[in-house]
């Protein structure tokens, strides 16, 4: 049986064409790399992180797998140019490749609208609400400005935003960032308003990570001085957490207050507010401020020591602290 097609029914060439072989192979390779549940979860976590990046330690918490396994999956995503990475200290940070951000966002929004974890805060339409960090930081700045009328509100807001940004670079858990920002901002605002002529002597201990010896030194000064000297600590490249051996020693020294200690970035304001700045034998360079006394204590690094070694470092610092306190209060 012959069928006659009308002109409208005949197949005619079109001006557009299918993608070429090379382009198809590239797309297929990328889609293959993405076709893993854990990789998609990590990609979603990175894309939704308010810092614009995620540390490998954050991503390791998504599933009960080893860190080498996490690193393998991240390498697969890097190999197809979906992610870029940057090493900072002992950790590696991952970002969505700038050229792939729109594609990644479209993929996640189009195919996985329910990718939020069970129990996440949803709006009336069922879509996940991201924490409004900007609004929370603005409220925090308003509260602090009301408590410190000698500083204008714009200065307070700047300090709060800078404090948040500095802490976000190393934070493991973003849900704790605002409370940590409040504590760090309060300290910085206190430094800005400190009256050197009437205040008790203030000492700033500085090391690279602010996760060991500088934390110990500050805690020991505050314990032994009994309020006659105030000690602070900071790091030129702060770690994401205090060293476990040091944390246990801080608990012995400060009790429950030790739980509030966390690595903090070094700021010019902290140096200006100090009467004495002591670096902890780790090669840190601090801003030189007229009227500030500088010293360096060559003490061991707890990160390289056993528990017994950390206790020996504590004893060394304790002896130095006793001499320092006696010098400042007499």
Task: Kindly describe this structure.
- It is a single chain.
- With 330 residues, the protein is of the alpha/beta class.
- It has twelve helices and seven strands.
- The strands form two sheets. It has a four-stranded parallel sheet.
- The longest helix has 23 residues.
- The termini are far apart.
- About 5% of the residues have low confidence.
Q: Would you report the number of β strands?
A: 7
Give unreliable regions as ranges: 113-130
Radius of gyration: 27 Å
By secondary-structure content and strand pairing, the structural class works out as: alpha/beta
Mean pLDDT: 81
User: What distance lies between the first and last C-alpha atoms, to the nearest angstrom?
Assistant: 115 Å
How would you spell out the order of helices and strands? HHEHHEEHHHHEHEHHEEH
Give the percentage of residues in beta strands: 5-15%
- Please give the order of strands in the largest beta sheet: 5-4-6-7
Number of helices in the DSSP assignment: 12
User: For the report, how would you describe the main beta sheet?
Assistant: 4 strands, parallel
- Helix % is 40-55%
């Amino acid at each position: 049986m012959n069928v006659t097609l009308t002109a409208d029914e005949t197949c005619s060439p079109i001006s557009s064409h299918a993608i070429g072989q090379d382009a198809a192979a590239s797309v297929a390779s990328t889609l293959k790399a993405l076709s893993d549940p854990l990789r998609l979860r990590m990609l979603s976590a990175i894309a939704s992180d308010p810092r614009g990046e995620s540390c490998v330690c954050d991503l390791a918490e998504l599933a009960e797998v080893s860190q080498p396994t996490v690193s393998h999956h991240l390498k697969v995503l890097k190999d197809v140019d979906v992610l870029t990475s940057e090493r900072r200290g002992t950790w590696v940070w991952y970002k969505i490749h700038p050229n792939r951000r729109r594609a990644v966002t479209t993929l996640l929004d189009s195919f996985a609208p329910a990718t939020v974890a069970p129990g996440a805060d949803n709006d009336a339409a069922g879509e996940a609400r991201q924490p409004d960090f900007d609004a929370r930081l603005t409220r925090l700045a308003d509260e602090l400005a009301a408590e410190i009328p000698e500083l204008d509100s714009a200065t307070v807001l700047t300090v709060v935003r800078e404090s948040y940004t500095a802490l976000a670079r190393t934070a493991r858990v973003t849900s704790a960032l605002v409370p940590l920002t409040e504590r760090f901002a309060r300290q910085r605002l206190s430094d800005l308003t400190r009256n050197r002529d009437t205040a008790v002597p203030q000492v700033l201990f500085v090391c690279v990570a602010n996760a060991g010896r500088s934390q110990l030194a500050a805690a020991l000064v505050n314990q032994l001085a009994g309020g006659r000297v105030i000690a602070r600590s900071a790091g030129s490249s702060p770690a994401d957490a205090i060293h476990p051996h040091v944390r246990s020693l801080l608990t012995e020294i400060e009790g429950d207050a030790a739980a509030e200690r966390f690595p903090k970035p070094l700021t010019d304001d902290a140096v200006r507010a100090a009467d004495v700045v002591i670096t902890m034998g780790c090669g840190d360079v601090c801003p030189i401020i007229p009227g500030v006394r500088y010293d360096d204590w060559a003490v061991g690094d707890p990160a390289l020591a056993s528990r017994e070694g950390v206790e020996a470092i504590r004893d060394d610092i304790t002896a130095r602290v006793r001499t320092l306190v006696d010098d400042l209060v007499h």
